[in-house]
Design a protein that fits this description.
2 domains, 13% strand, Aspartate Aminotransferase, domain 1, seven-stranded mixed beta sheet, Aspartate Aminotransferase, domain 2, binds pyridoxal-5'-phosphate, four-stranded antiparallel beta sheet, 426 residues, alpha/beta
């Protein structure tokens, strides 16, 4: 529907090749709506609205055009796009109009529980990892209150590598956050974390794939120690939930992260990251259904189910698209996708090394980080060529995310441009 602008070398149809590297161009100016920003008094004709919209979106990238190297999200699977488009009205907040949705939610929960080796886990569909993490922390606060009453602060232990959604959550919920530094591999430093766990700790959060570097915390060691004190462990697998289980099956040396690990009490997954679902699709699983029950808010309407999520009106279309993606893909589909991602990651690591860049630390999942004296300059220079990478600010590292929307050729092109903008060498 939107037309591609001609200003970007990458958006004219054919993806770039190493022989036709994009040239520098000015960064796109902010879009301004030709009509100003007021709600028009008279509705505009469809053609005009769509033309304005094309202008509004002109600078947007398409995952498929070979320019996006910073995103853990990607294009949904074709079947998920179809289902999403066909079920835009579906509202998980109303089980009377859409009786399919609670059933789909239960089935998605069961499929994801299977993926996380926790058959029988309870779960709730969310708008993404942020809401899922919020619900997990809230469940832990409620559990803590049941055990200790209101007098004991709900202390939550969190690695420095934990996602910034926990900064928002800490601002919203009555918790006291204790931050734990990372180790050399950018995982939470287990040796520093374990001594901080006490019987009245409300929750320990482990990250299975940090979004900054892809580092996977030592979930088994953390959970073994925490459970000895009766302390719940939440695994934030928003990044790694669809990667780690299959990478393990393919022989990668990664720890188990799911409910097969004794002591793990809840898990966040994000089908809209590597699950092939459209945004907004997240999910949280609870080993103990009591944790989910503790999130209940009674509905004011007869026949409408009580709520356990944060949102009221909820995107049922994304849930149905997740259901479709999971069933269409199956374990083998995800395993193949992960095998492809790992191949591309290895290619990227090799190309970077050949071009003289220092990849560090060694990537565990699909995020590749590069040590460089001025990663900001590199990323700005890339952006002037139409390519989006990122800087992990807290780590001072150039950050590249491998995803299934990238071809081998596009990765080669990325490194060629990187080498060029880097001049003589890092
Ligand atoms: C993406 C992500 C989140 C937040 O999920 P949203 O879907 O963006 O709300 C939380 N934790 C990790 C590790 C993530 O990668």
């Amino acid at each position: 529907m939107t037309t591609r602008p001609s200003s970007s070398p990458y958006r004219t149809g054919s993806p770039p090749t190493e022989n036709t590297l994009p040239t520098e161009h000015a960064l796109s100016p902010q879009n301004t709506l030709p009509t100003g920003n007021a709600l028009p008094e008279e509705g505009l004709p469809t053609d005009r609205v769509l033309a304005d919209l094309a202008g509004l979106c002109a600078a947007d990238h398409d995952y498929r055009d070979g320019t996006v190297f910073n995103s853990i999200c990607s294009t949904p699977l074709p079947i998920a796009e179809r289902v999403f488009a066909a079920h835009q009205q579906a509202n998980l907040g109303d089980n009377r109009i859409f009786p399919s949705l609670p059933r789909a939610e239960a089935e998605v929960t069961a499929m994801l529980a299977g993926l996380m080796d926790g058959p029988g886990a309870a779960g709730v569909a969310t708008s993404g990892g942020t809401e899922a993490n919020l619900l997990a922390v809230l469940a832990a606060v409620r559990r803590h209150q049941r055990r200790f009453g209101d007098g004991v602060p709900a202390r939550v232990l969190l690695g420095d590598s934990a996602h910034f959604s926990f900064d928002k959550i800490a601002a919203l919920l009555p918790v006291e956050v204790v931050r734990v530094p990372s180790d050399q591999r950018l995982r939470v430093d287990t040796a520093r974390l374990l001594p901080l766990i006490t019987p009245d700790t409300a929750l320990v959060v482990a990250t299975a794939g940090s979004s900054e570097s892809g580092a996977v915390d030592d979930v088994p060691a953390i959970a073994a120690h925490a459970s000895a004190f009766g302390v719940p462990v939440h695994v934030d697998a928003a990044t790694g939930g669809f990667l780690v289980p299959f990478a393990r099956e393919l022989g990668e040396p990664l720890p188990p992260i799911g409910l097969s690990v004794p002591g793990v009490t809840s898990v966040t997954l994000d089908p809209h990251k590597y699950g092939g679902a459209p945004i907004p699709a997240g999910h949280v699983l609870f080993r103990d259904p009591e944790d989910l029950a503790a999130l209940r808010t009674a509905s004011h309407y007869r026949g409408t189910f009580d709520h356990h999520a944060l949102l009221g009106t909820r995107p049922g279309g994304a849930l149905l698209a997740t259901w479709a993606a999971l069933r269409a893909q199956g374990r083998s589909g995800y395993r193949e996708a992960v095998a492809g991602l790992w191949e591309r990651r290895e290619l990227l690591v090799r190309l970077l090394a050949d071009a003289g860049f220092e990849v560090a630390p060694r990537p565990e999942l699909t995020v590749v980080t590069v040590r460089h004296p001025s990663p900001e300059k590199l990323v700005d220079a890339l952006e002037r060529r139409g390519l989006i990478a990122s800087v992990a600010r807290r780590l001072g590292l150039l950050r590249l995310v491998v995803h299934w929307h990238q071809s081998e050729q596009q990765l080669r092109c990325l490194v060629a441009v990187l080498a060029e903008v880097n001049g003589g060498g890092p």
